Amino acid sequence: MVLLKLNKVGKSFGSGEAQTVALDGIDLELKQGGFLAVVGPSGCGKSTLLQIAAGLVRADRGSVTLSGESVVSPPPHVVYVFQQYTKSLFPWRTVLANVEFALEGRSGIGRAERRDRSRNLLELVDLQSFAGHYPWQLSGGMQQRVAIARALAADARLLLMDEPFSALDALTRLDLQNLLLDLWADRALSILFVTHDVDEAIYLADWVAVLTHRPARVHEIIDVGLARPRDPITTRPISIGAGISERFTRPLSTASWMPNKRSARTIAPGAT
User: Fold this and answer.
1) Rounded to an integer, what distance in angstroms lies between the CA atom of residue 229 and that of residue 90?
2) What's the CATH architecture for 1-75+189-272?
3) Which one, out of 42, 142, 183, 272, has a CA that is 20 to 30 A from the CA of 175?
């Protein structure tokens, strides 16, 4: 079942000679419970694509649907996880209060239940001992764990993640990647994950959409096809040996290259 669908999505900024076409005819589908990563050159419009999918920015052309319904504003049960975690948390609230925020105003949920749910989620991301701390007292990785816990508190069914681990050190990044995979499997989440890291995309995702340079088009959607669970150490050589990694090289490394209509191939994840 297709959960999220982007059909011929286009987006431009500015007008006249100063107009910049960021996205040009983007076709993407994310199945229910799927994990789709999006990679592309810097500045090609990956974050813009994610913001359109979230209903935060309107597309100029094409359509976005979630479970068959048009997305024209942020829909419920869809949570956007930002790259800049320092700006996504409320610095005047404790860790526990940040997670509780997602439950405030929910009918039928009292203060005690809200607090219990939030404590359980902090335990899930291994931050139960830091409930009374403030974000500025935590490391970057811990702050991103708080953001993930808050997303789960919002009853997220679809996570839209914008390079969430790019600013973290290698060990912390790996730790959070594994946490995300566990949550994805345990909670039947659907994830659209933007990254500039090809190895991260191959390690995490079922499918990887490769975007061209601006104006961004979908060059190819790659079925990773590697068995789970995966090992982050062996995934890279396996993907190289299987010829997966080299399929990213041309669109990501050659700024002047742009596929013509016959060379660009867009398929839906899971399609043959």
Assistant:
1) 35
2) 3-Layer(aba) Sandwich (3.40)
3) 42
